[in-house]
Q: What sequence folds into this?
């Protein structure tokens, strides 16, 4: 009855490789948003280290067969951070990276919020906050129904969990004993109108998830070693697990970091040069 | 005469179909809708309970469908169309997922439960979503045929069902054709009454009375509200020169609106839209409510006469 989830291993070399990959994806994110003259750099940059770990090491996926029935699923419930996901999918080989600068342009597959029917490798459309975990519950139920061993990951923003539907889904995941479902909360502490705990307090976060019956794993969302460890631990829990990753909004670009103004704004030409320089440095420094 | 509610006929047929068709699953909220609560007892691995959480119900169904499952979800139409409105729009219709939404307890026929539970706007809401198909049976026979269609249907589908017993209009020879209106009565070419759902019975009674009074009408069953059978509507306009619509729904955005959109843009003829006029439902015997809202048989007859006079 119980299907054992596939597990992964990692080495120090993997950690370095992933750190460098994340630095490269940060450049893609900044370039895309600059070209589009709009988008959400803050939440893309806070999420990108986790997304890199998932797409370049952890997820069981095949770019040549994006609709593979047994693939792991990833739902970016905080859909506005899609530049991070688009960059990862392109660099992982799901589509031509040349397309990346067309973000938000008329006719592009790269909609301002993700469309699963347009982008190869994208498991679910998103954009309206609070919905992704419910869809993840459905995907995890489907895996169990068909005795498939894939894992479903759902990434949420810490502001997003103010939406009540998230807690309907959290309740359902525990009720249905979904061992194959992992929620990842990008705790960057900032939302569009300010700091999360000024807008609507979400703490105590770990207690909230635990009280809904979830296991909780905490990590530094910009420490690749900790990210991999958290993802590995989540797979050993045999229970629905929330990874609460502490992150910095706009991570890697000093003038964007922890600044609500960069939730949804594009860098100017000058700011782009500065930002690219900083994220390159960040990659090497690690 | 058989008088099963359309919701029960549909749900029971689906349970029957599950014996031979293993390719669909059922998601339930904690509502007594169409006897699909029984599905869980019979097919526990194919039934999923979502509790009193309709947004999560629709989101969960979308997730199941995104993994290739054919999903039926059942709840009251008022909740499916409004509490979970955005989930239906953005996570079922936009990604074009294979989810059939069974909306029950529609229109004034809900009776005693009153305004909070009587879905009178659901067609208007569902009709405005791209990729959505909308079907409404007029009786239990049609409900069963529509259930058979639905298990093989691909894409977002809304089935509109009524709560209380409704007398059968059709016999087993009835065949449901998606997207095609059914000419149920053809007494002449004075005007055409187009109905959808259980008020078809009243439309047919009105047709008989009108015939006795010398007005010879046609009655069309528009079981598929979207996509609309525009050909049948234009033929009605062309051949009878006046159209009346009859529906258990607000006149804003439902069948009457849909038909008039076709008529005014292609072949303008006098029209009369019978339905709920900018009011909420309320508790009471459905027949009294229909009378109160001008939707009972005498009202339909009167409005048809006035329409005929305008030709």
A:
């Amino acid at each position: 009855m119980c299907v054992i989830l596939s597990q992964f291993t990692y080495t120090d070399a993997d950690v370095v490789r992933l750190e460098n990959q994340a630095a490269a994806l940060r450049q893609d994110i900044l370039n895309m948003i600059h070209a589009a003259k709009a988008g959400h750099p803050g939440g893309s940059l806070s999420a990108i280290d986790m997304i890199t770990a998932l797409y370049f090491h952890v997820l069981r996926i095949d770019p040549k067969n994006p609709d593979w029935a047994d693939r792991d699923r990833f739902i970016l419930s905080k859909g506005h951070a899609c530049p991070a996901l688009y960059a990862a999918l392109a660099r992982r080989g799901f589509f031509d990276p040349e397309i990346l600068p067309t973000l938000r342009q008329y006719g592009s597959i790269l909609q301002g919020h993700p469309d699963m029917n347009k982008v190869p490798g994208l498991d679910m459309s998103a954009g309206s906050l609070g919905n992704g975990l419910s869809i993840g519950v459905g995907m995890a139920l489907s895996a169990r129904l068909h005795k498939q061993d894939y894992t479903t990951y759902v990434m949420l923003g810490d502001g997003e969990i103010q939406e009540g539907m998230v807690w309907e889904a959290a309740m359902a995941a525990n009720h249905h004993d979904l061992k194959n479902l992992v929620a990842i909360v990008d705790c960057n502490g900032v939302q569009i109108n300010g700091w999360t705990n000024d807008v609507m307090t979400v703490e105590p976060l770990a207690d909230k998830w635990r009280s809904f019956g979830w296991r909780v794993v905490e990590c530094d969302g910009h420490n690749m070693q900790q990210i991999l460890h958290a993802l590995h631990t989540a797979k050993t829990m045999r229970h629905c697990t929330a990874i609460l990753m502490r992150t910095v909004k706009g991570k890697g670009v000093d003038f964007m970091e922890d600044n609500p103004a960069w939730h949804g704004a594009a860098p100017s030409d000058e700011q782009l040069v500065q930002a690219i320089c900083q994220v390159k440095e960040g990659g090497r420094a690690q | 005469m058989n008088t099963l509610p359309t919701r029960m006929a549909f749900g029971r047929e689906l349970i029957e179909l599950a014996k031979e068709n293993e390719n669909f699953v059922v998601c339930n909220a904690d509502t007594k809708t169409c006897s699909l609560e029984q599905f869980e007892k019979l097919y526990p691995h194919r039934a999923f309970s979502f509790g009193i959480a309709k947004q999560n119900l629709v989101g969960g169904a979308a997730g199941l469908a995104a993994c290739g499952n054919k999903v039926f979800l059942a709840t009251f139409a008022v909740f499916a169309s409004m509490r979970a409105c955005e989930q239906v729009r953005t996570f079922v219709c936009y990604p074009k997922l294979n989810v059939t939404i069974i909306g029950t307890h529609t229109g004034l026929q809900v009776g005693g439960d009153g305004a909070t539970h009587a879905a009178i706007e659901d067609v208007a809401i569902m009709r405005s979503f791209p990729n959505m198909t909308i079907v409404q049976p007029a009786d239990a026979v049609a409900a069963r045929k529509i259930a058979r269609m639905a298990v093989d249907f691909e894409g977002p589908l809304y089935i509109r069902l009524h709560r209380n017993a409704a007398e059968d209009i059709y016999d087993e020879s009835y065949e449901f054709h998606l997207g095609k209106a059914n000419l149920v009565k053809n007494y002449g070419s004075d005007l055409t009454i187009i109905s959808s759902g259980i008020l078809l019975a009243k439309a047919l009674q009105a047709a008989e009375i009108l015939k006795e009074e010398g007005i010879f009408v046609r009655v069309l069953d528009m079981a598929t509200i979207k996509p609309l059978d525009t050909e049948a509507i234009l033929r009605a306009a062309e051949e009878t020169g006046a159209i009346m619509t009859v529906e258990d729904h607000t006149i804003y955005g439902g069948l009457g609106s849909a038909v008039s959109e076709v008529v005014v843009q292609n072949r303008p003829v006098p029209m009369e839209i019978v339905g709920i006029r900018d009011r909420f439902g309320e508790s009471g015997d459905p027949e009294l409510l229909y009378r109160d809202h001008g939707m009972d048989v005498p009202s339909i007859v009167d409005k048809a006469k006035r329409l005929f006079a305008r030709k």
Notes: The first strand of chain A starts at residue 73 and ends at 76. Chain A has one domain: 2-282. The longest helix of chain A spans residues 12-36. The beta strands of chain A are 73-76, 152-157, 181-187, 190-191, 194-195, 215-220, 241-246.
